[in-house]
Write a structure and sequence with these properties.
mainly alpha; single chain
């Protein structure tokens, strides 16, 4: 009988600390699962950023190749294909 009042007063003395801890323990797997999904998927913003980076790299590469072809055509015009205009 003596333990019943102590059990009733215990939550008041701990300031709800036990309730917070219990809630954290219960929600931890849900939060961890959500974080794993975030890491495994790509947001639209990330996808756009990656696509832009990829396209800029492609344009740089094409520009270098075009400058190389132009330089080669200036040095050896007979090797270049004539464009019909």
């Amino acid at each position: 009988m003596r333990t019943l009042p102590v059990l009733l007063i215990l939550p008041l003395l701990t300031g709800g600390c036990l309730v917070k801890t219990a809630a954290n323990v219960v929600t931890l797997p849900v939060r961890a699962g959500g974080q794993a999904v975030d890491w495994a998927t790509t947001s639209q913003d990330e996808a756009d950023r990656n696509y832009g980076r990829k396209m800029r790299a492609k344009e740089e590469r094409e520009g270098r190749e075009q400058r190389k072809r132009d330089k080669e055509c200036r040095k050896h015009p007979e090797r270049c294909q004539s464009y019909s205009r």
